[in-house]
Design a protein that fits this description.
Elements: E1 7-12, E2 15-20, H1 27-35, H2 45-64, H3 70-84, H4 103-120, H5 133-137, H6 143-179, E3 184-189, E4 192-198, H7 199-224, E5 226-227, H8 244-256, E6 261-262, H9 266-271, H10 274-300, E7 311-312, H11 330-354, H12 364-388, E8 394-395, H13 397-405, H14 415-418, H15 420-433, H16 437-442, H17 449-455, H18 458-461
Parallel strand pairs: 5-6
Antiparallel strand pairs: 1-2, 3-4, 7-8
Helix pairs in contact: 1-4, 2-3, 2-4, 2-6, 2-8, 3-4, 4-6, 6-7, 6-12, 7-10, 10-11, 10-12, 11-12
Length: 463
């Protein structure tokens, strides 16, 4: 086999192939491109960056330990720095649905760094006698410890962006708690009249639920910082120097700025995907709360003439191609759809996590895809939901208070004075006559005007 003017010949254990001369990836990446034309998606940039950070840490460590030639290590580190600065990101091309454990993504990284390092040393791409993807870039490493470590770094990167967005949403809801503190409305349980509540109290509950989500997320993120890098193929650290484990984590901590710590048990770190399941579970809980909140906002803003219409959501776009003037709660609808996707992703993660066998879980790539997707879309969705919906919500005070005054559940405040049975009869009479509870009491000589005002003080009912 001879190369064309636009290709070079590379070989691996399966044979020789032509590789385009202008690319930095090599034969194993080519095979992955051919084997896995599945989604048309590329790897998450955060996963690429994390993998390259690991390669840089390993090169530094191996140079320090004297097991990798200084020139090779320096060239690999320079190549890594170029990628970390944004160069060559288009060379990471393996579909997320790929070989088990992430071997194809890992070799894509090894080949790109090797070929760039070769150029830095004055050679031509594909001349692996200078810098080899496996022998040099991957020295002392295995997909089995590199890929799960990269997953941890990438997930921590994204969750560190998500948590501030959650906190800002909680803060915006808290501001609405204050703004709507004087808006009295009817509570509703089972979607039926219930005792009065303040609109601010409803929004305060939303804010508290979101805040709890942030706390869960931070706790789950902490688990990601324990890495099994240095475990090599099965956790024993085969083909690594005795000092490699501690030194490579130290270097990776310096490169990332994350408070990384070595795994207490390298075998468990390789076998169990529990930290990712835990983080996905926290995302699922948050998504469930956000769905509930979005649904409440859609219900409270329903109408404007034939629904509850206690609040107004900001109009951000026309709502119908046929009904002029219609405006829909599109930001809440969008948040619902994102959260449904997060819950679906969580199911895929759970199934993949339980599919691990013996020393390795080969389903890691689909865990990475779904977890990083959930983190990204939820971060973006919360940001626009807050700025384009929550912060612009206003209250229809008169409408809300009208509902409060006409709620049948106002009889609850009368029960201690007239008893449950008589209060129930009063509620029935209100339904039958169409009169409010207050109107019925005014016609009853048993109560003075002052007593009626005291009994039916709807603000005091919310305290």
């Amino acid at each position: 086999m001879s190369p064309s003017s636009h290709s070079r010949i590379e070989s691996d254990s399966l044979g020789k192939r032509e590789v385009p001369s202008d690319v930095y990836w090599g034969i194993q990446t080519l095979r992955a491109i051919e084997n896995f034309p599945i989604s048309g998606w590329k790897p998450f940039p955060e996963l690429v960056i994390a993998t390259v950070q690991i390669k840089k840490a390993a090169a530094r460590t191996n140079r320090f330990l004297g097991v990798l030639d200084q020139r090779f290590a320096a060239a690999i580190e320079t190549a890594a720095d170029e990628v970390l600065s944004g160069s060559l990101l288009d060379q990471f091309v393996v579909d997320p649905f790929q070989a088990g454990a992430g071997t194809s993504h890992h070799m894509n990284t090894n080949e790109v760094l090797a070929n760039r390092a070769i150029e830095i040393l004055g050679g031509s791409k594909g001349d692996y006698s200078i810098v080899h993807p496996n022998d040099h870039v991957n020295y002392g490493q295995s997909t089995n410890d590199v890929f799960p470590t990269a997953m941890r770094l990438a997930a921590f990167n994204l969750v560190s962006r998500l948590i501030p967005e959650i906190n800002q949403l909680s803060h915006s809801l808290a501001e609405k708690t204050v703004e709507f503190d004087d808006v009295i409305k009817s509570g509703r349980t089972h979607l039926q009249d219930a005792v009065p509540i303040r609109l601010g109290q409803e929004f305060g509950a939303y804010g508290a639920a979101v805040e709890h989500g942030s706390t869960r997320m931070a706790s789950a993120a902490f688990e990601l910082l324990e890495v099994g890098l240095g475990g090599s193929a099965v956790g024993t650290g085969l083909n690594t120097s005795p000092e490699y484990r501690s030194k490579v984590v130290e270097e990776l901590r310096s490169i990332t700025g994350y408070d990384l710590r070595a795994a207490g048990d390298y075998f468990a770190a390789m076998q169990s995907l529990a930290p990712f399941v835990n983080l996905s579970g926290a995302l699922r809980v948050l998504a469930i709360d956000l769905i509930r909140i979005a649904n409440d906002l859609r219900l409270l803003s329903s109408g404007p003439n034939t629904g509850l219409a206690e609040i107004n959501l900001p109009p951000v776009q026309p709502g119908s191609s046929i009904m002029p003037g219609k405006v829909n709660p599109v930001m809440a609808e969008m948040l619902n759809m994102v959260c449904f996707q997060v819950i679906g992703n969580d199911t895929a993660i759970a199934l993949a996590a339980q599919a691990g066998q013996l020393e390795l879980n080969v389903m890691m790539p689909v865990v990475a895809l779904n977890l990083l997707t959930s983190l990204r879309i939820l971060t973006n969705a919360i940001a626009v939901f807050r700025t384009r919906c929550v912060e612009g919500i206003t209250a229809n005070r008169e409408r809300a208070e009208w509902y409060a005054e006409h709620s049948l559940a106002l009889v609850t405040a009368l029960s201690p004075k007239i008893g449950y049975a008589k209060a129930a009869e009063l509620a029935k009479e209100s339904i039958k006559s169409g009169k409010t509870i207050r109107d019925l009491l005014v016609g009853d000589d048993s109560f003075s005007p002052a007593e009626i005002d005291a009994l039916l003080d709807i603000r005091s009912m919310t305290e």
